[in-house]
Amino acid sequence: MSDEKKYSLQEAHQAFAAGLFNQCWELLEKEDRSEEDTRKLINAAHASLYHWSRIGKPINLQRGEWMISHVYSVMHRSEPALYHARNCLKLTREHDFKDFDLAYAYEAMARASAANDDRDEFTKYFKMAEEAAEQIAKEGDNKQFLSDLEAEPWFGLKPI
Fold it and tell me: Which of 67, 127, 76 is nearest to 101 (CA)?
């Protein structure tokens, strides 16, 4: 008799989507990330979004686009960072997401713009992210967002 759990296709997509998203955080926080870790990080971010696209709601897609943009921004790869930040912001606007999802969409645009060395777009979206932070209802979410907003990399564009 096998102890293996059987998953429906929906349950498998859910498990992979969430598990891969969490793996991204583990790899992003790894201080001595290797080239292989970086490849895994990129693949995990894209795979997570793929699985969300099969079973998720628009909010899952928005957050998946944010994660991919964040990964590429951290790696200073501005073209894909901007592409996914724009997708994140588009979903945010289409579905009228508020609170920390709106703030993170602006943060994605600011960070991707910083990676692209576009001071004007960085300044615009960073200010919008700060303003959106004031509207985050839960204190814990606000604190987390502000911590993430302070975190590097900003590629020398964020004022001290």
Answer: 67
Alpha carbon 156 to chain centroid, angstroms: 21
pLDDT in 10s for each residue of the chain, 160 residues? 567 888 999 999 999 999 999 999 999 999 999 999 999 999 999 999 999 999 999 999 999 999 999 999 999 999 999 999 999 999 999 999 999 999 999 999 999 999 999 999 999 999 999 999 999 999 999 999 999 999 999 999 987 6
The full DSSP string for 110-154 is HHHHHHTT-HHHHHHHHHHHHHHHTT--SHHHHHHHHHHHHSSP-
Q: How far apart, in Å, are the Cα atoms of 50 and each of 18, 24, 33, 54, 117?
A: 11, 14, 24, 7, 29
| Spacing of C-alpha 75 from chain mean position | 13
Measured distance CA(40)–CA(42) in Å, rounded: 6
